From TrEMBL:
Any Pfam family: DUF202
Organism of origin: Streptomyces formicae
Transmembrane helix as UniProt keyword: yes
Membrane spanning stretches: 54-73, 94-112
UniProt entry keywords in alphabetical sequence: Membrane, Transmembrane, Transmembrane helix
Protein name: DUF202 domain-containing protein
InterPro entries linked: DUF202 (IPR003807)
Keyword Transmembrane applies: yes
Taxonomy, superkingdom: Bacteria
Compartments it resides in: Endomembrane system
Positions of the DUF202 domain: 17-79
Biased composition (Basic and acidic residues): 7-17
Length: 113
């Protein structure tokens, strides 16, 4: 007999007490998303500083698309961390986040030069 509310588990299954780690990770994703938002806004401002030109508008559009992609990846991860037993970060999600970050860096370098 088990106490009320306790789940019966296989004897070989590892029980993990995540503690506050999922919450800290969720907050880190929120801070990263905020930083990405600020970077996208500043990039758009810098691209349109001399007035709306075709390359400036294209750079703003690209920054907006990258920001939306990163926002979608971060939101999906934060929702996954809200579950009772959060899953580990999938390889596809990690690649998407890294690709968005790398693309932002390339856009920044292109704007500087």
């Amino acid at each position: 007999m088990t106490p009320a509310g306790e789940q019966v588990r296989d004897p070989g299954e590892r029980v993990r007490d995540p503690g506050l780690q999922p919450e800290r990770t969720r907050l880190a994703w929120r801070r990263t998303t905020l930083s990405c938002t600020v970077a996208a806004v500043l990039a758009g401002r810098a691209a349109l500083h001399q007035g709306p030109t075709v390359p400036g508008v294209l750079a703003c559009a690209l920054c907006l698309l990258l920001w939306l992609g990163f926002l979608a990846v971060a939101h999906r991860r934060m929702v996954a961390l809200s579950a009772c037993g959060p899953r580990t970060l999938s390889l596809g999600t990690a690649r998407a986040a890294a690709l968005c970050t790398l693309a932002f860096a390339v856009c920044a370098a292109a704007m500087v030069f």
